[in-house]
TrEMBL record:
Lineage: Eukaryota, Sar, Alveolata, Ciliophora, Intramacronucleata
Protein's UniProt name: Uncharacterized protein
Region Disordered, residue ranges: 1-20
Native source organism of the sequence: Strombidium inclinatum
Amino acid sequence: SHYKAYRAGDGSPTKEKRQRPGQLHIFFLDFSTAMLANVLHSRTCQEWLAVNEAKSVEIANRLLKCLTIPRRALPPSVMMHILICLSYFNKTKAVQSFVDGPTCQ
């Protein structure tokens, strides 16, 4: 079979939970998006985003694209972290202009 099965926590095979090859585990997605939100909230990162406007817009656009992923593919906690990240980008003038402009989809 193309599926690998893991029991939550210990990594041993079981029939309870299946994961496709190349698919990220839910705990990794949850942790990484929470960590990203914490990094984006830091003053150092906010200052960097203000100086690097093009990169700020690129990252914000990638996060916006994550919102187009079907709801059942992403858990609510991951979607919440993505929305929190986007709220921190709202403080950046370049991102505000991008969101208000015609190129934002």
